[in-house]
Structures are given as structure tokens and as C-alpha cells.
Amino acid sequence: MWLLRSLIKLWDAGLKRDPRVVRYGESVERMSSQEFEEGKQWLSDTFFLIRCENDCLPNIDWVLSLAKAAVLRHGVNGLVIDPYNELDHQRPSSQTETEYVSQMLTKIKRFAQHHSCHVWFVAHPRQLHHWVGGPPNLYDISGSAHFINKCDNGIVIHRNRDPSAGPVDQVQVCVRKVRNKVSGTIGDAFLSYDRVTGEFMDIDEHPRKG
């Protein structure tokens, strides 16, 4: 949330200097300059970004090699790979996509186990030809059913975009798989998304309008 608030503050400062641009979220309380600097420092101390600065596409081996260095040098205990379709997925002609995805997910799971590091792998659903507006399931991820077969926890995040189906700021968190039953259960939760601040809140905590 610090990052989102920081970007909003920075954007708002730019709007103040340019009278031609209509201000966004004018009534929202802004952070102070001190809070902004503290937020940037917290981000710098807490997160380490892995980027490919040249024109080539990184593959999963490249990502995991740098992630291993981050674990050993900085004590990182969580890795977010986002998104799946931005990686290079070239494979031998003799290897099917299903075999490739299985091998890739095995590498990620071994990395997590060997380095005691949580890994969140973000993947998007394939184009759904008969989509009716509801949340997709884990089998809809582009690539292979191994995404649900090999994951320890499978979570679908879905935001309603149909005003006739409910509030468009409502976000549905669908827990579709939990391998270790001690850590949680399958079910749904609903959050409210504030477009101005970028915050997600429990439905009953969202300030009522009117």
C-alpha cells in the first residue's frame, strides 16, 4: 500500500503543477513529504526487484538463479514471479507444452524447498470463448493443467466488471486448492477496491457512501 500511496502522492504533485490536468481524487487525504520519504525507504529495505535490463526475454532458470543470490545475500524469504507470460518459454521441439510446464513448476518447487522461500507464481487465464463474467478456475490458466496439479495453494483473484452482476469495485478472492489443510480451507472472500487510493478493504470496512 505504501507504493500505491506514494505513486498517488507523486502524481498529485504533478497535477498541482499543471493546471491543464483535472486533479484525481482531490478529496483524499494525502501523505506528508516525510511519510513519502519513509515509504520509499521502507520499500527499498523490504523489496528487491529482479529485472532483465537488456532486450532479451528472461527464462525461469535466469529468474531462479538471481532469486537464489537474493536469498543468500539478503535473506529473502519470498519470491513473486509476475507474470508467467512475460517469461521466455522456448522449449525443444520434442517437448510438449504440458511437459515443459511440469518441468518448470518442478524447478520452482525445488527452489522453494531448498531455500525455505515462499514462491508466488502469477499466471493469467487463457482467452475464454464462452466466458459469462464469473471467476475463472485454475484449469483455465494458459498452458497446462499442471498449474493446479502441482501447486500447494491455488488462488483466483477476480474483479467484477459487469454493473448488472454487482458492484464493479468488488473483488472476489477464490481459494480453490489448499494442499496442507492446517494452513487453510477452500472458500471465497470478498473485498472492496478503492480506485483512488488503490486499497483493498473488507466489504464491511469500506466506508458507506450517502
TrEMBL record:
InterPro entries: DNA_helicase_DnaB-like_C (IPR007694), P-loop_NTPase (IPR027417), Twinkle-like (IPR027032). Residues 1-207 form the SF4 helicase domain. This is SF4 helicase domain-containing protein. It comes from Datura stramonium (Jimsonweed).
